[in-house]
Amino acid sequence: MAMALDDMSARYATDEMKKAAEKVPEFIISADGHVDEPVDIFDELPLEIRENINRPKIMLDTRPKGGVDPKIRITDMDLDGVAAEVLYPTFVLGLFAQEQREQEAAFRVYNDWIADFCKGSPNRLFAIPCLPVYDIDVAIAEMQRCSDMGLLGGLIWQVPHPDLPLTSDHYERLWAAAAELGQPIHFHILTGFNYFRFKREGLDRVRGSVNTKTSDIFTTVYDLIWSGVFERHPKLKVAIVEGEIGWAPFLLQQYDYYYRRFTKPGHPSGEFAISRLPSEIFEDHMYLTFMDDYAGGQALKHWGDRNCMWSSDYPHPNMTWPNSRAFIARQIGDLEPEKQKRVLSQNCIDLYGLDIKL
């Protein structure tokens, strides 16, 4: 196991990168880390529910133990120089494609477990609860319950059930409740009715990991902006998680072009649910996380430093731990210090109102 982890984490640990890491601010926050849920997490649920929960096999012996043990997590964060982390599930991400009964039961158990996981270091470990949105009343109640436990916002499916598109009225009361609570809504890759549910071989492995995944992100961003969600709920904030950032300036540029084109006087397509440029709406309401995106990192010199947040993805196989500073240096080491600060910590602090004590 040690050799596998050493090989994995040494990718950017050259002497040159370590020297470059000195440019990185001392205080950094990962806006997207993960936990590895214990194998017995759902043992308390009735058998008829447990039997229907799809749990993929995860090779825990190839991963650092901070995914399951919060004390080891803090030790590993200190080793990596990470002040705080925002946490998401691992296999529970796949349960956003479960049926309603199983999803509601599983999410409640997971949310209780992750709240306990964070209790040992409440000023360094912060978690996003999972919200089942088949029934919006259930989702709102769970978001409020989790907020009372100190969890942040809520994670919902990025690719909704086909009968419940994000452009429908189904979510209106959830958007309103999240805005009123000041709790951001999150969309993590591989949640919901997406390509990851199906076996992928050959070209389809890459097609799913790049083309389909990015298309799913585009659809989420498009549906939220163009359906007028933020016009109706001006206090709502949203985070698109683990989708990288290099695509965003191009997409928003295109949205702005067609908004201007189709809102010219007399144009037959001139009636939209939004009253300003999509890029302006994005800047006021949406956040993105990135880990391995050199192109996106270079774009931060001109765009997005107030909307993007770095993440380590610990303890997943493509994580940056324990050489995150060297990895960051490669991505944004030449970014001006104030922008680095925003991307590496301040945006995350501002979005969640974090109070971090080392």
Number of helices: 14
CATH architecture level-2 label: Alpha-Beta Barrel
* Series of H and E elements: HHEHHEHEHEHEHHEHHEHEHH
Fraction in beta strands: 5-15%
Radius of gyration computed on alpha carbons: 20 Å
Number of domains: 1
- Cα end-to-end separation: 30 Å
The helix content is: 40-55%
Shape: globular
- The whole-number mean of residue pLDDT values reads 91
Description:
44% of the residues are buried. The chain has a five-stranded parallel beta sheet with strand order 4-5-6-7-8. The chain is 43% helix and 9% strand. Helix 6 (136-148) packs parallel to helix 7 (172-181). It has one domain: Metal-dependent hydrolases (TIM Barrel). Strand 2 (84-88), helix 5 (100-119) and strand 3 (125-127) form a beta-alpha-beta unit. The chain starts with a helix and ends in a 6-residue tail after the last helix. It has 14 helices and eight strands.
